[in-house]
Amino acid sequence: MPATVILGGQWGDEGKAKVVDFLMSRHDVVLRFQGGANAGHTVVNDDGTFKFHQIPSGILYPDVTAVMGNGMVIDPFAFRDELGELLKRSIDVAGRLLISSAAQVVMPHHKFIDSLMEGELKKNHIGSTGKGIGPAYSSKHSRRGMRMSDFLLSKEELHELVTRSTEWGNRYVELFGAPPLSAKKIAADFVNIQELISPMIIDTQELVTKWKADGKNIMLEGAQGTLLDIDHGTYPYVTSSNCSIGGAISGSGLAPRDIGRAIGIFKAYATRVGNGPFPTELEDETGDCLRDKGREFGTTTGRPRRCGWFDLVAARYAVNLNGLEEIALTKLDVLSGQEKIRFCVAYELDGERIGYFPQNVHLLNRCKPIYEEMPGWPDQELGRGDFEDLPENAKAYVRTLEERLGIHASFISTGPERSSTIVREDA
Ligand code: GDP
Ligand code: IMO
Ligand code: MG
Fold first, then answer.
1. Which domains does the chain have, with CATH numbers?
2. What residues contact residue 393 under an 8 Å CB cut-off, 6+ apart?
3. What is the per-residue pLDDT across 205-226, written as a single tens digit (0 to 9) for each?
4. pLDDT by residue (tens digit) across 165-194?
5. How far is ligand 1, taken at its centre, from the CA of residue 115, in Å?
6. Could you list which residues have their CB under 5 Å from ion ligand 3?
7. Opening angle at CA 305, ends 303 and 306, nearest 5
8. In terms of Cα–Cα distance, which of 141, 137, 183, 136 is closest to 161?
9. Ligand 2 atom with minimal separation from the 299 CA
10. Which pLDDT does position 383 carry in this prediction?
11. Test site for ligand 1: of 6, 10, 16, 18, most ligand atoms within 8 A of the Cβ
12. Is the CB of residue 16 below 6 angstroms from any atom belonging to ligand 1?
């Protein structure tokens, strides 16, 4: 069966992991195709709450094979810790958690340089999660990165390579006037985890070719969101990978025609963590209310997320860019109890009304939202089964978003648990 891609439609944290987990029962394998430990993916099921950063969220199903794809940048030490947490909770991953030999390694100097760069930017800092993502992708693109396949070298060769890589990184560290990292210590740390990591390394191009031949149902798990995409997001306030549809191809090794379904995940409102333009941001009581009710605090950093109304202009941009026909609309329950619900239908830019999402961040910074509004619905539990059982105004809100975006909301999420999901695929 062709692959299903799960993509963030906004600035991340849309509830991608919840949808991956929900749909995983129909799939055999899951592959994360970009990003690294900057992601925080939350799954809530009968066994409790699980927070994933690098390991694909689909792993909670015991028969699923989970792969960290070639498009990722992997911090091996953070991976060890995340794996340890899963094992502590009796999730057996033996033989079914694999790492692409072509994925890049996040080195300690990448994390250090990330923090040094942010410190230097001062008030203009990106708001990076500090996980070394930007510097790791920089090394990849300048062809100075280490790949996960390097864990398959001999101990001596790995030691030598890590030493050289760290010494190279120290040249950048020196530019900031910061003390160099100990290449010797880092090389020893790498050698120490080699035995844990090396059995999981696999040639993923061979693997996906086999999956296709065997007719496996493939899930591609995205991280971050379209508006954080390095090419298409609100540059420079973005992450350093392609988190829109193109990244699903380059980061997995699948071909465009292998993709059967791309589902964009959108919150019923908007959030952003970190800096950068956010036209519908609410810096008032309503914003605080959405943050409290939606528990909008970063999964990775614990930072409060900036909250605002749904932005149709930005969402349409994501729909067009990714070629979406269907979405999952999450956190509808968080809007319950709002007397009026607003959504942005256009921007005012220098006195003119515009209907597009400017690529130029300087223009986007000057855009003011133009809103329409609808009556809300009472603060009540939203149903889990039938769309028709939702309050009339909630249904009207969903239908309005569908019409204005020209898409179908195949899934509506009304709570964090796996079971709080309304399926409308046939509606
Ligand atoms: P991701 O990065 O896109 O996977 O999303 P995160 O896990 O970072 O953030 C989404 C948060 O919202 C998590 O805490 C989820 O448990 C929670 N969540 C997901 N769907 C819903 C929903 O429909 N309603 C509520 N109230 N919470 C949800
Ligand atoms: P998930 O997968 C929300 C944001 C950071 C910062 C910018 C750059 O959970 O949706 P980076 O560490 O990548 O250099 O940070 O991107 N960011 C995210 N925001 N969800 C994420 O992932 C994010 N990953 C990065 O806050 O503004
Ligand atoms: Mg998240």
1. 3-102+200-261 (3.40.440.10), 105-197 (1.10.300.10), 267-321+329-423 (3.90.170.10)
2. 341, 374, 375, 376, 377
3. 999 999 999 999 999 999 999 9
4. 999 999 999 999 999 999 999 999 999 999
5. 27
6. 13, 40, 299
7. 135
8. 183
9. 9
10. 72
11. 18
12. yes
What's the rounded Cα separation, in Å, for the pair 394 and 375? Answer: 9
Amino acid at 1: M
| 6 exposure class (CB count in 10 Å sphere: 0-12, 13-18, 19+) | buried
Ligand 1 near 416 CB (within 6 A): yes
For residue range 12-65, list pLDDT tens digits in order.
999 999 999 999 999 999 999 999 999 999 999 999 999 999 999 999 999 999
| Ligand 1 atom nearest 223 alpha carbon | 2
Amino acid (1-letter code) at residue 412: I
What's the pTM? 0.97
CA distance linking residue 184 with residue 1, whole number of Å:
48
Distance CA 183, CA 108 (A): 10
